[in-house]
Every structure is written in C-alpha cells, then in structure tokens.
Inverse folding.
C-alpha cells in the first residue's frame, strides 16, 4: 500500500500567514506612497497658515507636524493590523500621545496672525482707508450665492431633462445622449471668446448672473448624463403603479420617482456647487472690474501683492476657502459614493 | 365590481400590431386567466384594461360604459405588477395607504382600511418596514393589499406568482383564489403557467401571437382544445401528437390503422393525453424505452406501433421494466383529431371498436 503523505499543516499555515501579511503590507506601502504627494500640500497649507511669516521656527514646526502626522498614521495602521479591531483604550492612548506631542512641540509656535483678514480689511496694516480693500466676507457671500445659484439652475433644469431622456422614446433620443457626451468632452475654455461676445450682446457682461448662466450651461451635460442613470434605476413599474393608484403623472413623478432619485440629485447638486465654488477662469474673464469678488478672485488678489507674496496669509485664505467644501463633503459623501455613470442604453 | 366588455380591441406600436381584434366578455365577479407564451399580447391586454396603454381601435367597457378615454387613475382598477412595483421610499403602511391619498378618506378610515387589507393578506406585523426589508413572498402580499385597499372594480394580476419559489407559489395560488372568492371581485390573471390558470381561474382565455385562440373553462381547454396550440400548451407532460393520415373511415397512424366514425381525408394529427394510454391491457404493441418515476405517478417513454408515445400512470412504482414489451389501449373518448391546419375536428372521432389489423 502506498504511503499517504501527511501534509505539514503547521508549515502550510505559516506560509499562508506570511503570504497574507506580505500582500497586505505591499498594498499598504503602495497606497501610502501614492497618497503622500496628495497629502503633503494640505499639511503644508494648514501648518503654514498658522505660523508667522519670518519666524525662524517656521520650518521646524513644519517638520515636527509632518513627524507627528507620520507617527499618527503608523500608529493607526499598526493598531489596525496587530489586533484587527483594537480596543477603544488603545486608540485613546494613541490620540493622547499625538495630542501631547502637538501641544509640546507645535502649538507654542502657532499664531492666528495670518487669519487677520477675517476681522480686518487692512491686511497689509498700511493704515490706508480699509473700505477700499475687499472684504473676505463679501467674497465668501458672493461665492456662496454664485455656487448656490448655479446649483439650483443646474438641478432644476437637469432633472426634467434627464427624466425625459430616461423615460421617453422620442426621435433623436440617441443623438441627444451622444451630443451630451460630446458637449461634456469639449474644452470649455475654447468657448471663452464666444461667450464673452454673447454676454456682451445680452447685456450680462460684468454681471455675476451672466457668469452663473454660462457656468450652469457648461455643467448641464454632465449632470443630465449622471442623473439619467439614476432615473433609469427607478423602475417604470412603480410609476405606472402610482398612476393606477390614482396619482397624476406629475404626482407620480413627485411622490414616487423623485424620492427614488434623491441621492442622485444630492450628488449632482454637490458637484455643481463645487464647480461654482472653485471657478476662477470664467469669473476672472467675464467680471471686468473688481466690484464683485468671489473667493477664487480674493485668493488671487491676496497672492498678487506688490510687496511680495505673504505665504502665511495665502495659506490662511486657502484654508478658509477649503472649509465649506469639507463641510459639504461630510454631509453628502454617502450620496456621492452611490454615483455611477450609466452608458447609452436603450 | 364590474362586467368587462371588449369589442374588437386592437393595439399597435407603430407598424407592428401586437393585438389582433379582440372581443370578449368577463362577467361580474368572475376570475379569468389570460394564458399564453411570452409575447402573445396578454400583458398588453391587461395594461389596456388598466388604462396604461390606449387601445388603437375598438371599445373597452366597464358595466356597459365605454372607458377608452378614461384615465388610468380614474378607472379604479387594482393592479399587481410582476415586479410588485412597491414604492421603495415608503413604508409598507404608506405603500398600502398610497391609493387612499387620492380619495376622500379621513385619517381614521385610512388606518382602518390599511389594517383590514393587511389582515386579508396576513402582513399586519410588517406595516412599519420598508419594502427592501421584505422577502419576495411578503412583497407580493403587500402589492396585493395595495391593490385591494381601494376596493377596485377590477383586480388585474400580471404574473403575480412568477417570482415566488415553488412551495410559496402553490400556497399563494389557493390563497389568492380564496381572497378573490371572498371579495367577489372581477379578477383578471395574466400568466404563462398553465397550472396557475387551470387551478385558479373560472375561465381561461388562451392567447397566441396577439390573438385569442380559445376561451373556455379549464376543462374545456384540457379536454376539448380548439387546436394544436392549445392542446400542446395545456397539460403537463404535454399531449402526444402523432402525425396520421386519414383515408375515409380509416386512420393510418404509424403502422396502425384505426377506424373512424366519419369519413375524413388527408394528413391529420392524433392527440392523446399521456394519462389516456392504458398500459398492460390492450392489443396495441409497444416497448418501454425509459421510465421516470415522478412520485405519485410514473412516466413512461414508449416505442409503439403508432410511433413514440408518452404515457402516465398513477402509482409509486413502475409496473413495467425498461425494455419490456407490453400491450396497451387508448381511451377513444379522449383521443382528439386535428386537421391539416391544426384545428380540432369536432364531428369525427375514433370508434370504440377494436382497432383494425390488430
């Protein structure tokens, strides 16, 4: 009778464990290396905005914060790896250590000086008439109104368009869908001169409303396309059922279809808002004088100082510019992750 | 409650006519099934009645009143869709109450009627959940409750059981029938499952390729099918169809010759239900090729003088072995003849006499 070789289960187990650990660490290292260049500028921005310009400690504060960040990252990865789900105490200890290091090495060298634009218009401390200087709050309000206005125009226009493209088999539907894709693919900047002339004819040049309309028009193809896939996912049957239940077509749309595409609406509205919030080129081109200032223009204004760039100030403005985006993302990220890009389907 | 009348109703999508002129009458309180293969126009008929599609021509009437121009929302029909079409954004309670939002029903009345409907289909415990938290069978019950809550004139069911597993389907079949009988509502069931139609409906409308092939009781369709399509579609295992040649009073089937009551000529088809072949007592010779025990019945594949035949016999154990030669007899009362166009020949039958040349 042939010998039945008994596998060395212990050795196989070790091999499997090593293999899994090797794979996991390779993935971790790869992702870390990839993320580093993305994270560093934000760290720089944050630290820079809180250190005084010309402070000899500025550089070392930057290094120290980077070190603490690395420590925090390594600690978090370590805790996750070692015990799978580390107890809350371990995380608390890590948090305390990091907070302690920050308090000892970084916090004493920080200043709010760079954020002076929040409470005074006279950011250069020249004593000149401060009402001549632009205010960050006005810029913030303008940007907010601009982005919100664009969001409303885009969603209110795109929703019925996407609904029609998703539900009705009209002549030229395929062409319309393809057209949308091409429109989205066009570089918008190529249109700048044409848009300029058109706005001049319409009397909307140098008006924030004009820029808002232009931006909305540019944003629409993409939004319609994304929303269409959300409408596609809301079944016809539910709408038909609502009609047999006594609803009008519009009631069925409002009470049954719209709630089903709400995540999609929130996602595209978020994107429309962000596009409006970050826009620089068109506001710069189409707003001729500096009466109306958006946040992007304000940042540009701060950076263009004849006395030389004040990096601390620029960084602080940058941080303030980022904050609303961050807040928005926290509230809408769960909707944005549901987004998918439907193809041209029958 | 309503009587439904269709007069020459057709439906076309552009150039393609999906429904040939269709006329039929459904009595008040009747349970009628529309049976046919997919794409035969049965769901189209249902949606025409619901008002979701507009008829291209012809007249649809409820209780004698033409409703062609009445909107779906005003026809007061309860529809259960194949996909159930529950509203995912609403709870089960809100789903069932949805039709009442468009009627003048006060709050207490809504609660009362929703709970009554939920009790009918036994889902009172699920009222606060969302549709996504329910199993297929439960969703189906919710869809039924939502259709019943508005006390519709007509209940339209579009393949309501096709997404359920086999056990649940059998249970829901009798339950649905019981609810229909209790409420006495005119009900139209669309299905491709002949067993569903036979077990539930008072009458069956059999459709194929956009036209009505036969209307009758389940027994009519089973025992007296109008043509080969109905004969083949109804019954499981399906009817044996043997190519034959009629020569006057004689029918040539394979190597067999059988006497006819009336003269007939040309190629015909002989239809024999598997259970009408009586094994082990007769003069027709055959041989068992294969045996499939089905539990309470045994299914035989036979090679016979007449050609290949399928036979079904009650009993748990096969009485014959594979390869065994046997003699059998056919029940002349139930043998069917179809002419060259596939239509059943009604005035001619096999005689009860012993076969010729036996």
């Amino acid at each position: 009778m042939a010998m039945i070789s008994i596998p060395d289960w212990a050795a196989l187990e070790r091999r499997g464990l090593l293999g899994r650990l090797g794979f996991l660490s390779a993935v971790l290292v790869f992702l870390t290396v990839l993320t580093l260049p993305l994270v560093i500028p934000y760290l720089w921005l944050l630290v820079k905005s809180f250190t005084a310009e010309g402070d000899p400690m500025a550089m070392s504060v930057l290094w120290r914060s980077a070190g603490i960040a690395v420590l925090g990252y390594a600690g978090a990865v370590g805790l996750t790896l070692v015990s799978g789900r580390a107890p809350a105490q371990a995380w608390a200890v890590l948090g305390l250590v990091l907070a302690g290091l920050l308090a000892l090495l970084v916090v004493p060298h920080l200043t709010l000086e760079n954020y002076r634009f929040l409470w005074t218009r006279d950011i250069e401390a020249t004593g000149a008439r401060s009402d001549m200087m632009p205010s960050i709050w006005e810029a913030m309000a303008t940007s907010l109104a601009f982005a919100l206005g664009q969001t409303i125009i885009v969603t209110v226009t795109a929703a019925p368009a996407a609904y029609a493209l998703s539900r009705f088999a009209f002549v030229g539907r395929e062409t319309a869908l393809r057209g949308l894709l091409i429109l989205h693919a066009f570089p918008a900047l190529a249109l700048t001169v044409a848009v300029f002339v058109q706005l001049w004819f319409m009397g909307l040049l140098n008006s924030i409303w004009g820029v808002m309309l232009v931006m909305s028009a540019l944003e629409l193809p993409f939004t319609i396309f994304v929303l269409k896939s959300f409408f596609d996912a809301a079944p016809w049957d539910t709408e038909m059922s609502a009609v047999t239940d006594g609803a009008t077509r519009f009631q069925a749309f409002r009470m049954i279809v719209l709630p089903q595409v709400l995540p999609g609406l929130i996602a595209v509205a978020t994107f429309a808002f962000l596009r409006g919030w970050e826009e620089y080129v068109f506001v710069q081109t189409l707003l001729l004088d500096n009466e109306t200032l958006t946040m992007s223009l304000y940042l540009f204004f701060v950076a263009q100082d004849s006395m030389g760039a004040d990096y601390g100030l620029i960084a602080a403005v940058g941080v303030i510019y980022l904050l609303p985006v961050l807040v928005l993302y926290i509230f809408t990220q769960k909707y944005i992750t549901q987004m998918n890009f439907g193809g041209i389907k029958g | 409650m309503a009587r439904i009348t269709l007069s020459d109703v057709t439906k076309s999508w552009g150039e393609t006519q999906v429904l040939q002129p269709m006329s039929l009458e459904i009595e008040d309180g009747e349970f009628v099934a529309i049976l046919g293969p997919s794409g035969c126009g049965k769901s189209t008929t249902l949606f025409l009645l619901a008002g979701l599609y507009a008829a291209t021509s012809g007249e649809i009437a409820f209780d004698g009143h033409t409703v062609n121009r009445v909107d779906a929302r005003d026809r007061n029909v309860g529809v259960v869709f194949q996909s159930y079409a529950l509203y995912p954004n609403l709870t089960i309670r809100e789903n069932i109450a949805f039709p009442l939002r468009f009627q003048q029903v006060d709050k207490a009345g809504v609660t009362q009627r929703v709970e009554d409907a939920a009790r009918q289909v036994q889902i009172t415990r699920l009222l606060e959940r969302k549709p996504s938290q329910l199993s297929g069978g439960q969703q189906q019950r919710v869809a039924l409750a939502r259709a019943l809550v508005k006390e519709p004139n007509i209940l339209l069911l579009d393949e309501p059981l096709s997404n359920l597993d086999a056990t649940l389907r059998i249970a829901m079949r009798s339950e649905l029938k019981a609810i229909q009988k209790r409420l006495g509502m005119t009900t139209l069931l669309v299905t491709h499952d002949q067993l569903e139609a036979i077990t539930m409906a008072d009458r069956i409308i059999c459709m194929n390729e956009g036209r009505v092939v036969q209307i009758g009781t389940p027994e009519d369709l089973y025992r007296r099918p109008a043509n080969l399509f109905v004969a083949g579609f109804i019954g499981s295992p399906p009817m044996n169809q043997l190519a034959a040649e009629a020569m006057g009073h004689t029918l040539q089937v394979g190597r067999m010759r059988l006497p006819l009551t009336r003269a007939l000529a040309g190629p015909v088809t002989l239809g024999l239900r598997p259970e009408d072949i009586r094994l082990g007592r007769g003069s027709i010779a055959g041989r068992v090729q294969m045996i499939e025990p089905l539990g309470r019945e045994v299914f035989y594949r036979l090679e016979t003088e007449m050609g290949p035949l399928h036979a079904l016999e009650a009993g748990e154990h096969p009485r014959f072995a594979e390869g065994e030669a046997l003699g059998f007899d056919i029940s002349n009362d139930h043998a069917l003849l179809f002419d060259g166009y596939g239509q059943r020949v009604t005035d001619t039958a096999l005689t009860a006499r012993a076969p010729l040349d036996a």
About this structure: Chain A has two domains: 13-111, 133-336.
